[in-house]
């Protein structure tokens, strides 16, 4: 017996993919941040690196990479560029020469001042409680995906 068209599964549409919704939302965030980042002379990855250092200064390259989900071979050129721009300093840890510590300079800390647009919470159109729920749900999604790829290895 032949399957009829009625029995065939619905073809998947791009809009049905959660991964595409997250990917396209990330692109939309990039566009929303672009004017502010251009004024600061930063890329998005440079910006989140500085934000992570505002949160915890004097980090090792390894701990910063873990926080940003970046490998050191990706992070190091970003750090070199930010150092050349005068926003941070890299130096070997005197207690462990294998480690490189990252510290913001005065200029790196001052980037935070006078920039209320650093948060796009209003641009999302979400109420504060919805914003928090969305952020927690996306973090849970990311963590679940990371866990599933580690268990598959």
From TrEMBL:
Keywords, sorted A to Z: Cytoplasm, DNA-binding, Transcription, Transcription regulation
Cross-referenced InterPro entries: HTH_MarR-typ, MarR/SlyA-like, Transc_reg_Sar_Rot_HTH, WH-like_DNA-bd_sf, WH_DNA-bd_sf
One of the Pfam families matching this protein, by short name: Staph_reg_Sar_Rot
Subcellular location: Cytoplasm
UniProt domain HTH marR-type: residue ranges: 15-143
Protein's UniProt keywords contain DNA-binding: yes
Main location: cytoplasm
PROSITE patterns: HTH_MARR_2
PANTHER family: ORGANIC HYDROPEROXIDE RESISTANCE TRANSCRIPTIONAL REGULATOR, TRANSCRIPTIONAL REGULATOR, MARR FAMILY
Name of the featured protein: MarR family transcriptional regulator
Organism for this UniProt entry: Zestomonas insulae
Origin organism lineage: Bacteria, Pseudomonadati, Pseudomonadota, Gammaproteobacteria, Pseudomonadales
């Amino acid at each position: 017996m032949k399957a009829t068209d009625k029995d065939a599964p619905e073809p998947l549409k791009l809009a049905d993919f959660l991964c595409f919704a997250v990917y396209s939302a990330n692109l939309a965030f990039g566009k929303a941040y672009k004017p502010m980042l251009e004024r600061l002379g930063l890329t998005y990855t440079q910006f989140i690196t500085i934000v992570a250092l505002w949160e915890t200064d004097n980090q090792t390259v390894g701990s910063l990479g873990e926080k940003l989900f970046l490998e050191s071979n990706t992070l190091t050129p970003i750090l070199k560029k930010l150092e050349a721009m005068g926003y941070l300093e890299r130096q070997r840890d005197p207690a462990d020469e294998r480690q490189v510590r990252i510290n913001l300079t005065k200029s790196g800390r001052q980037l935070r001042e006078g920039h209320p647009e650093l948060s796009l919470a209003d641009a999302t159109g979400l109420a504060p409680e919805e914003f928090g729920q969305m952020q927690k749900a996306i973090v849970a999604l990311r963590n679940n995906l990371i866990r599933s790829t580690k268990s598959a290895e």
